[in-house]
Specification:
Layout: H1 6-16, E1 21-22, H2 24-32, H3 34-42, H4 52-68, H5 76-89, H6 100-115, E2 122-135, E3 141-153, E4 158-164, H7 176-179, H8 181-194, E5 201-216, E6 222-228, H9 232-235, H10 237-246, H11 251-264, H12 272-275, E7 278-287, H13 291-313, H14 316-326, H15 334-339, H16 346-359, H17 364-381
C-alpha cells in the first residue's frame, strides 16, 4: 500500500478540525527519550536515528513483506537475504553490531527465518495498510498508522501482524503492555472505522528471531519450547538423547547423530520415530484484545499526547530546564548511549563538552587567587 500523501493528511486535518495528525512513532519518541522528541519534533534538528538494528529491521520488514505480497517466492527470499548481507559486509561505513557474537546470533536467526517461510493461510492480505484512530475525551487526537501485514484468517478474524527482530526479553510479561500499545491503537482504529467487533480482531507480534519447538512428552502429550532459530536443535539435545536411548540406539551412534543434527540445525539425520516427535512453527506473541483493554490504552496514549502538547507550549528555556531536571542523560542506559538519535548526535556531544568545561574545578593556582582576592576584600571592608 502507498502511504498517505501530505495532501491527504491535510484533508484529514480539515475533516476533523485538528492542526496535527499524530503518529505512534511520535508518541513513542517521547516515551523512549523526551530529549530525542525535543530534538526531532520541537527543534527539528537534522539528526540521524539510524542504527544497526533499525537498518536490519527495515531490511527484514521489506523482505518478508515482499514475500507476503507475492512479489518474490520462497526460493528467492534466502538469495535476496544473502545479497543484503554481502552488501553490508562490503560497506566500510556500515553500522556494526556491538560484538561478533551478537552479530552471528542476530543474522543467523534471521537467515533461518527467511529459509523457512510459509504462506499465510488467509485472504485479503495487505501490507502497510493505513489505519485511522481517534482518541481523547473529545476525539481530538487523530492518529494515522500503517499495519505491517493485515489479513482475514480462516475463522473470519481480522489479523494484524507486527514483525519484530527484537529479542524476546524486550517482550516479557512485564514489558508486553507497553510494547503492545501500537497494535492495540490500530485495533481501536479497525473497530472505529471498519466496525469490526473487538472479539474478531487478532493482534500478534511475529518474533522473527525465534521459533516454537513442539515436542511429544513421554506421556504422549505435546509441549512447546521457545528457542532461538539458529540453535534450536542444540537446545533440544537432552530430549533427543533421552528419546534415542528409548529406541535402544547405542551411545556412539547417539553422539554422532546429535553432532550431525546440531551442525545442520535440523533433524533430518534422525530416525523417523524421532522426527515425528518434533516440529517447529513461527513464534507469535498474541496480544489480548477487548474493549476494556483498548479503552485503557486509548486513555494512556491520550494522556501522553496531552503531556506532549503541554511541553510544546513551554518557552524554549523552560523546555530545556524541564528536560535537564526530569530526563538526565544516563551513560549506563543502553538506549541513551547506543540507540537514541539525540544522544548520539554531534549537537549533544558538543553540548556535553561545553558543559564539562564549564563544570571543571579550577586548578590550584586559580583557587589560590580567588582566596587571595577574598582576603583583600575582607581587609577593605573590615
Amino acid at each position: 500500500m502507498t502511504r498517505l500523501s501530505r495532501e491527504q493528511l491535510n484533508e484529514l486535518k480539515k475533516k476533523y478540525n485538528v492542526d496535527r495528525i499524530w503518529s505512534f512513532s511520535r508518541v513513542n519518541a517521547a516515551q523512549s527519550c523526551f530529549w530525542d522528541y525535543w530534538a526531532r519534533y520541537v527543534k527539528h534538528m537534522d539528526i540521524d536515528g539510524s542504527s544497526i538494528y533499525t537498518e536490519w529491521g527495515t531490511n527484514s520488514h521489506d523482505l518478508v513483506q515482499e514475500f507476503v505480497a507475492g512479489d518474490i517466492d520462497a526460493e528467492e527470499v534466502p538469495v535476496k537475504w544473502k545479497e543484503y548481507i554481502d552488501k553490508w559486509e562490503q560497506d566500510p561505513n556500515a553500522f556494526q553490531f556491538d560484538t561478533k557474537q551478537i552479530e552471528r546470533g542476530y543474522l543467523n536467526n534471521l537467515k533461518h527465518y527467511f529459509s523457512h517461510l510459509t504462506t499465510i493461510k488467509g485472504t485479503n492480505i495487505q501490507n502497510e495498510k493505513p489505519v485511522l484512530a481517534r482518541i481523547g475525551d473529545k476525539k481530538q487526537f487523530v492518529f494515522v498508522g500503517y499495519i505491517d501485514t493485515q489479513y482475514t484468517d480462516e475463522d473470519g478474524n481480522t489479523v494484524l501482524v507486527d514483525y519484530k527482530t527484537s529479542s524476546k526479553s524486550s517482550f516479557s510479561k512485564a514489558k508486553l503492555p507497553e510494547k503492545s500499545r501500537q497494535l492495540m491503537l490500530y485495533a481501536i482504529g479497525k473497530h472505529q472505522y471498519n466496525h469490526i467487533p473487538y472479539d474478531k480482531i487478532k493482534c500478534r507480534f511475529d518474533m522473527m528471531k525465534y521459533l516454537t519447538v513442539h515436542y511429544r512428552q513421554e506421556n504422549g502429550k505435546w509441549n512447546t519450547s521457545i528457542q532461538e532459530r539458529a540453535k534450536w536443535v542444540s537446545k533440544m539435545e537432552k530430549k533427543l538423547v533421552t528419546k534415542l536411548k528409548k529406541l535402544d540406539v547405542d551411545q556412539d551412534n547417539i553422539e554422532e547423530l546429535i553432532q550431525v543434527a546440531i551442525a545442520s540445525n535440523n533433524l533430518e539425520c534422525m530416525p523417523k520415530e524421532i522426527q515425528e516427535q518434533f516440529f517447529t512453527s513461527n513464534y507469535y506473541i498474541e496480544i489480548p484484545i477487548n474493549e476494556e483493554l483498548c479503552d485503557k490504552v486509548a486513555q494512556d496514549i491520550a494522556a501522553d499526547c496531552t503531556d506532549i502538547v503541554d511541553f510544546e507550549k513551554m518557552s524554549s528555556a523552560d523546555q530545556e530546564a524541564f528536560l535537564e531536571l526530569n530526563f538526565p542523560y544516563n551513560p549506563n542506559n543502553y538506549y541513551d548511549k547506543k540507540l537514541c538519535a539525540y544522544h548520539r548526535s554531534q549537537y549533544f556531544k558538543d553540548r556535553e563538552a561545553t558543559l564539562d568545561d564549564m563544570l571543571k574545578p579550577e586548578n590550584d593556582e586559580q583557587i589560590n587567587t580567588l582566596f587571595e582576592e577574598d582576603e583583600i576584600e575582607e581587609e577593605i571592608f573590615s
